[in-house]
Write a structure and sequence with these properties.
single chain; 3 strands
């Protein structure tokens, strides 16, 4: 969650400075808010949770988009016009 606007729309930021490398060594990942563009650091433990939650949401969305397969034991439909 963004510390400025409290949005959950955050993503990992690219490494730009030596400070970013040092922070990664300390177990902190750089993030950027997609709403207000604020850049901030989160501990690796929180980073793992964010990534796990995002992967779970994406898999649920994909499952909901997939059309349901017809049941195998369903009776065939008969066209009354034939």
């Amino acid at each position: 969650m963004c510390p400025r606007c409290h949005s959950t729309e955050v993503s990992r930021s690219r490494t730009h400075k030596i400070q970013d490398g040092f922070m990664r060594w300390m177990g902190m990942w750089a993030y950027r808010c997609r709403e207000c563009n604020k850049r901030f650091y989160l501990p690796a433990k929180i980073d793992n949770k964010i990534r796990r939650d995002r992967a779970w949401r994406e898999s649920v969305d994909k499952a909901q988009e997939r059309p349901a397969a017809p049941a195998e034991d369903a009776a065939p439909t008969i066209d009354p016009a034939a």
